[in-house]
Each structure stands twice: as structure tokens, then as C-alpha cells.
């Protein structure tokens, strides 16, 4: 009898009861706007910022409306202007080049390796082309951050880290988002904490932090922040920084605070599931497992593998056959974007030259979400299905 999987790849766990109660408290008092506070009240959003800054070891934190808004705010805060080139990954999701385009800048794409990380040789070769790198830790894969920072420091490049997929991850014990000048995180439903939408920005640079707060729409209420610089820093920048409102509200912050306290536990659960699927896929003919470096502490909320040098129709056969058995796989090799699987040559608002080595990798990337609603037995079953269907098509 052919096994099938009947679970959902988009169903998240319920919001924790502690977060539900915190959200109800905000709804009952009605002060959803982050600056609408009762006398002596600190506010859920300000407390979230203070707690997340402490959690990752940052001086300053700002909560905003989305991860994409955090990225665009970081670009503006470090001084990117219309027309400026910004280095970024060829393998990433649309909000990353989208944030660059939103400030009128232009992406300069850097290649991807078979480990699904930014190609550091290509980065070194292009280092003279821009003064900012928006580094995307795409699908949770961290490159050699020590080498990357050495390249960027030597070239005078400011690094903004897109940590949408690496909240809770680390390189050599340093939390993701803490090596560059700015770290940006997403709190969207499919990320590691869930407020529907939302973003967090961290930095140790007082002027970047002050500009980000003003950009987010603080008006002159910046003194109500608990994880922001002192008023003397705002005095230097407040009349020269535009308000581009994108604040987080107290309702979403209330939902997030308990989830962030449980993040380490959730990371361990994700990685248990990731390792079960990874173990089940190892040794499958024609399939390449992505090896994780020893220095990387990862979060296995999704898993990728390569069908390297496969013909496109054979990859599509694998996707169809797995889908017929209930396993939803996404492919980054399709010529047209499908869902979130766009790639550097999909974004036609941004000029790009062909990148043959990266194109070969992108053509083979297969991606799958790993929700915490999966049991370990589900993970074993999913791996058996993928292994069987890849093997069948490969042998044919």
C-alpha cells in the first residue's frame, strides 16, 4: 500500500495561552497604539523591544510593522540614497531586493554556493561596487560570518543582516543579526514567532537607532522607548529624518513577548524534526543534502535539498509525484515565480547579468516547510515519500 501524508504544510501551532491572555488585556483596555499609554504604563511594544535587545545582546531595538519594513528602515538609517548600489544575495526572497528598490537604490546580486549561502569569492570580487551589503540568511543558512565580516570591514562595507529565517540561530555563538551594523527579523506567521506580521530591528549604533525610531513614526515621543538612545542623540537627527510610519502596535507586541521567551524551546523542537527528515533523505540517489557547518547553530523551520544537474521536467515530476502523496515541495528552478520561489532574474525592476554558477544551484533547489505541527513520525513518513519519489524518477 502506498503511503500518503495528510497533514498541512501551512498550519501553525496555536498562539500560547499566555500570549492570548496578554492580547485580551490589551483589547480590554483599548490602548493598541504604542504611544497611547496610561500614567506609569511602559507599554507592550516598549517592553518587547527591551526584552529582545537583551535576548540578542544588542544596545537598541525597534519593533515595526513587518520584516520588510525593518529592512527598508535599516537601509535609510545607514544612509542609502536613491541610485545607490546595494550588494545582496542572488538567492533570497522578494522583500529583500524589494526593500532596496523601495528606497530607490539598486540591487547588485552576489552568487550562491551549493551550501545555499552567499558566495564569498563573488562578494570579494564585487566588494568595490557598493558600500552596503544586505545579507540574506536565506532559508536559515549562515555563511562563514567571520570571513564575510573580514571582507566587508576591509572594503568599508556596512552590513545589514536579513534574519527573517535565523531568529534563534548563531555563528560561533554570536546570535544571527549581531555581526553586522543592523539585524532585521520577521515576526510573520511562517517565521519563528508569530504575530501575523511584524518586524524587529537591532543595532549598537546610537545614530542608526535614533534614525530608525524617527523613521518608524515616533513623532517626538521617542522618550517612550526603553531600548533607544538618549534624547541628546535624537536632538542631532530629529529635524532631518522623515516620518515613514511603520510602528508595531501593543497588540502584536503582547502576542510576541511570551513567544520570544519560549524561543529556545521551539528551536530545539524544530531541529529535532529537521534532523529526522535530513536523516531520512541521506543516501538518496541523485539527491544532495545540505551539510550544516559546525560553527552554525541553525533553526530547522524549513529544509532544502538539491537535485543538482537534473533536467527541469524530471524535477517537476518529483514535485508532482510528491504532491500526489500529500508532500508539498517548492522549487526555485522554475522560469516563472510561483508563490515565494522567485530568484534574482525574476525581479525585472532590477538589472542583472546571467550568473551561470548560481543558476546551476538555483535550478536544483527544492524547499519544504517544517511546521511544529508535524510529529516526528510525520517527518519520517515525509522523508520516506520524498526518498521514494526522487529514487523512482532518478532511476527512470
From TrEMBL:
Molecular functions (GO terms): pyridoxal phosphate binding; transaminase activity
Top-level taxon of the source organism: Bacteria
Family matches, as Gene3D superfamilies: Aspartate Aminotransferase, domain 1, Type I PLP-dependent aspartate aminotransferase-like (Major domain)
A biological process from GO: polysaccharide biosynthetic process
Annotated catalytic residues: 191 (proton acceptor)
Keyword vocabulary terms for this entry: Pyridoxal phosphate
PTM-bearing positions, type N6-(pyridoxal phosphate)lysine: 191
One Pfam family in the UniProt entry: DegT_DnrJ_EryC1
InterPro entries given in the database record: DegT/StrS_aminotransferase, PyrdxlP-dep_Trfase, PyrdxlP-dep_Trfase_major, PyrdxlP-dep_Trfase_small
Family: Belongs to the DegT/DnrJ/EryC1 family.
The protein's name: dTDP-4-amino-4,6-dideoxygalactose transaminase
Amino acid at each position: 500500500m502506498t503511503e500518503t501524508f495528510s497533514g498541512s504544510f501551512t498550519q501553525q501551532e496555536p498562539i500560547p495561552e499566555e500570549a492570548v491572555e496578554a492580547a485580551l488585556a490589551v483589547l480590554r483596555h483599548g490602548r493598541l497604539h504604542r504611544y497611547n499609554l496610561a500614567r506609569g504604563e511602559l507599554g507592550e511594544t516598549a517592553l518587547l523591544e527591551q526584552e529582545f535587545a537583551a535576548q540578542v545582546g544588542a544596545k537598541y531595538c525597534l519593533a515595526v510593522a513587518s520584516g520588510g519594513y525593518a529592512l527598508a528602515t535599516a537601509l535609510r538609517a545607514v544612509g542609502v540614497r536613491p541610485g545607490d548600489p546595494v550588494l545582496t544575495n542572488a538567492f533570497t526572497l522578494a522583500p529583500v531586493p524589494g526593500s532596496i528598490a523601495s528606497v530607490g537604490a539598486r540591487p547588485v546580486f552576489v552568487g550562491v554556493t551549493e551550501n545555499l549561502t552567499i558566495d564569498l569569492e563573488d562578494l570579494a570580487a564585487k566588494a568595490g561596487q557598493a558600500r552596503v551589503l544586505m545579507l540574506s540568511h536565506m532559508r536559515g543558512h549562515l555563511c562563514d560570518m567571520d570571513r564575510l565580516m573580514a571582507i566587508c570591514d576591509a572594503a568599508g562595507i556596512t552590513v545589514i543582516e536579513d534574519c527573517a529565517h535565523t531568529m534563534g540561530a548563531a555563528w560561533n555563538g554570536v546570535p544571527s543579526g549581531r555581526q553586522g551594523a543592523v539585524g532585521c527579523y520577521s515576526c510573520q506567521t511562517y517565521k519563528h514567532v508569530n504575530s501575523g506580521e511584524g518586524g524587529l530591528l537591532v543595532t549598537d549604533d546610537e545614530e542608526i537607532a535614533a534614525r530608525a525610531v524617527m523613521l518608524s513614526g515616533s513623532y517626538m515621543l521617542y522618550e517612550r522607548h526603553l531600548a533607544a538612545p538618549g534624547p541628546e542623540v535624537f536632538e542631532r537627527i530629529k529635524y532631518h529624518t522623515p516620518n515613514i510610519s511603520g510602528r508595531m502596535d501593543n497588540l502584536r507586541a503582547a502576542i510576541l513577548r511570551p513567544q520570544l521567551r519560549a524561543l529556545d524551546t521551539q528551536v530545539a523542537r524544530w531541529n529535532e524534526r529537521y534532523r529526522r527528515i535530513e536523516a531520512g533523505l541521506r543516501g538518496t540517489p541523485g539527491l544532495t543534502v545540505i551539510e550544516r557547518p559546525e560553527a552554525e547553530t541553525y533553526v530547522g523551520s524549513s529544509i532544502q535539498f538539491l537535485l543538482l544537474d537534473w533536467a527541469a521536467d524530471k524535477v517537476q515530476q518529483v514535485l508532482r509525484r510528491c504532491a500526489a502523496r500529500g508532500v508539498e515541495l517548492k522549487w526555485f528552478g522554475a522560469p516563472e515565480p510561483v508563490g515565494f520561489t522567485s530568484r534574482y532574474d525574476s525581479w525585472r525592476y532590477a538589472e542583472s547579468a546571467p550568473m551561470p554558477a548560481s543558476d546551476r544551484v538555483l535550478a536544483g533547489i527544492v524547499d519544504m516547510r517544517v511546521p511544529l505541527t508535524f510529529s516526528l513520525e510525520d517527518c519520517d513518513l515525509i522523508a520516506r515519500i520524498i526518498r521514494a519519489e526522487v529514487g523512482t524518477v532518478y532511476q527512470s
